[in-house]
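Thread: sanity check for a docking pose with pyridoxal-5'-phosphate

Original post by kr_44:
Hi all, I'm comparing my docking run against an independent structure prediction. Below are the sequence and the ligand SMILES. Could someone generate the full complex and paste the structure tokens? I mainly care about where the ligand ends up relative to the chain.
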Amino acid sequence: MTTEGPPIRRLADWDAATLRDLADGHGTPLYVLDQRRVRENVANLRAAFHEESISYAVKANTVRATLETIAETGIGAECASAGELQRAVDAGFDRLRYTAVNPPAGDLDHVVDLAADPPRDLDLVITVGAADAFEALAERGYDGPLAIRVNPGVGAGHHAKVTTGDAPKFGVPYDRVSELASEIVSRGFDLVGLHAHAGSGIHEASDLAAHRELVSRMGELARELDHDLDFLNVGGGLGIPYRPTDEPLDLDSVAAATREAVGELDARLGIEPGRYVVADAGVLLTTVNTVKPTPETTVVGVDAGMTTLLRPAMYDAYHEIRTLAPDADERESVTATVAGPICETADVLGRGRELPGPERGDVLTIGNAGAYGYEMASNYNSRPRPAVVSLDGGESRLAVERETLSELTRLEIEQ
Ligand SMILES: Cc1ncc(COP(=O)(O)O)c(C=O)c1O
Ligand SMILES: N[C@@H](CCCC[NH3+])C(=O)O
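Reply from moderator J.T.:
Ran it for you. Here is the predicted complex with pyridoxal-5'-phosphate included:
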């Protein structure tokens, strides 16, 4: 059983000497994932959502070491692709939800095969977000349990690009759900659940209000359906404080508000957080390559960029940045723009940051990098992806090797 921890692990709480040693030993850019913190986050969620069923949204971080840690806690896995599903199975998850968005044929083939011939006893439910996805499964002879992803018409999130509950791309329109449910049931399938997801990064009061509205609409829909359900999953999206001045969510009150909003329900409530489980369990270490004073700012060029951590470029997301230099206290502070090595103006990890006089060779640490960090890394500009180290108590081990230049072309065929 895992033990609960503080509601957030701040960047300042990481042990600087340990991180410096890891940067020395493995080079940078380097992701570090603390498995103890992952366990604490799961325990914190369980303490608050003790009546609900919890699945980890695998997309936030699929590094095997982390998936194994989470699988061991006994919670389920929510998977958005055949690749995620396979990783979750390989890491030991037994309760799996495949919540496909517009699933490609090859994915469905894989998932249907897995359902027909599982490597062990698996509790696998496929969630369809369109009538066509249901037809595609039926054509493949799938005869297992199904859930419907609903577009509840209300969304929330830290950025418009991750607000899903009101985006037409996601889910069956609310007022067409009963029709699809009847079709599924009349054709002899086992409809076990309904699902909706407001979006990612629910943190502000307005987002929490939208979440409650979503839950309430979903509760109503579940009651209106002429069919008994096993579960009503109201998605993930629980946000975390990215800025040092942000406060963590009060999970107990979010859980209580969720229960209240759903109303009378025979089915079990479910949630599927990703970010909340892994974000503050990870940091990104990066080395300063250049320090360039300019009339506007001091540009601190580092070896991590948008190909290592995409969130600042993609969502203008804020990630705290600190120096690990041991003599930081003796240095005069400068206002810096921390920029990556990619040929894009958007390749900036932080603007207007107060840093103790940065020097070439300094190692910086970037906070809350455990969620959607390594996972969204790319090879743009032919940059190899970084390594990942897994930390557990005093032990550290390499979890993902650093990509090499020769690996960048491994799929290319000489013409
Ligand atoms: C269907 C679904 N469930 C769960 C999540 C997890 O979201 P988060 O990492 O914000 O908890 C997402 C991502 O937004 C999602 O699309
Ligand atoms: N990638 C997003 C979260 C989106 C989750 C997927 N629906 C982020 O970094 O905030």
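The CA atoms of residues 322 and 357 lie 11 Å apart. Hope that helps with the comparison, let us know if your pose agrees.
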